[in-house]
Structure to design on (110 residues):
């Protein structure tokens, strides 16, 4: 599994945990993994013909409010970009994230 570490890197103390975003190809999901190995959320997708279609994102209740979902999507989108693929955002959370972060809108498939 490839991984992208996503976290708060300005040197300040924060209560947000470090998140490693991994592409679990067998599950067809990008997974947010904390430093202790705990899975803290996932973004399910379908991949075909260079397009990654995000279908559902889920962060368990105990991890909500910690920015994990946003960091999960940011890491997933970076990996899609690195692979040279495009995105279809069927998942409302991914769609809203891309709307709020126009630097990712160039990934959207026509």
């Amino acid at each position: 599994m490839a991984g992208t570490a996503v976290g708060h890197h300005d040197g300040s103390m924060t209560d947000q945990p470090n998140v490693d975003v991994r592409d679990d190809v067998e599950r067809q999901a990008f997974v947010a993994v904390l430093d202790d190995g705990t899975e803290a959320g996932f973004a399910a997708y379908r991949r075909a013909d260079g397009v990654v279609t995000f279908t559902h994102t889920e962060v368990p209740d105990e991890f909500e409010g910690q920015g994990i979902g946003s960091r999960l999507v940011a890491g997933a989108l970076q990996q899609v970009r690195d692979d040279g693929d495009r995105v279809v955002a069927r998942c409302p959370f991914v769609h809203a994230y891309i709307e709020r972060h126009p630097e990712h809108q160039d990934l959207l498939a026509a």
Observations:
- Helices lie at 68-83, 92-100.
